[in-house]
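Q: I'm writing up a methods section and want to include an example of the input and output format. Could you take the sequence below and give the corresponding predicted structure tokens, formatted cleanly so I can copy it straight into the document?
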Amino acid sequence: MSKLEAVFSEGKAFIPYITAGYPDLESTEAYIQALAQEGASIIEIGIPFSDPTAEGPVIQHAIEQALDKGIRTDDIFDMVARLEDQVSAPLVFMTYANIVFGYGLEAFFQRCQAVGIQGLILPDVPYEEKEELASYTKKYGIPLISLIAPTSKGRIRQIAGEADGFLYVVSSLGLTGTRESIQTDLSSMIQAIRQANPDLPAAIGFGISGPDQAQQMAQLADGVIIGSAIMKLIDQYQDQAEPAIRDYARAIVEAIR
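A: Here is the clean output for your methods example:
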């Protein structure tokens, strides 16, 4: 059992996302530690990319600001290296294929292993094109987290059957961002996942805004992924967001567990 899978054996997982470098890297580092201390099970760290095709306006803004301040992938690797002995929650990267290929596949995965990254999410790499990365994910023990969306339909069982770490279930069509309600028939999607791979944890993301929605999603799946709601707090409070982030994280953990 991988470290990612082991997390889900401890109960429903809270998986927050944070864009590295917004408003600055020092704040990102502090906020990651705060999220871990307040019960985050796994933490997604977004490596900024200039064309974040899956992201809504809140995260796009954060990415643009981080890039404007000169944040680079090596800066984020250095930050994760500092966090390795301070944060017990597994850390995963969420970014885009150009970042990985531009850095160099061997060098990127080697550096991920060296700093303790436990997984990689690339929303622009479809299931059919993941083989180019497969040898590196196996060599360095860093699973590529598969995504399933409402449009996956007949491909759900195929994707889930070969998935590793955990499965990222996209709750809604469109971009990331908070939503007042989630209308997708997620129960059918989760059922298909369970049938294909009963032991694979599944976490729902995209659109979850607060404790009530998180509780509803946690009743269906093994965990919830929340990004835009957290980034809204950072957008509002900038480098003074830690108290608000702690309060929000505590509320989500209480709701899902």
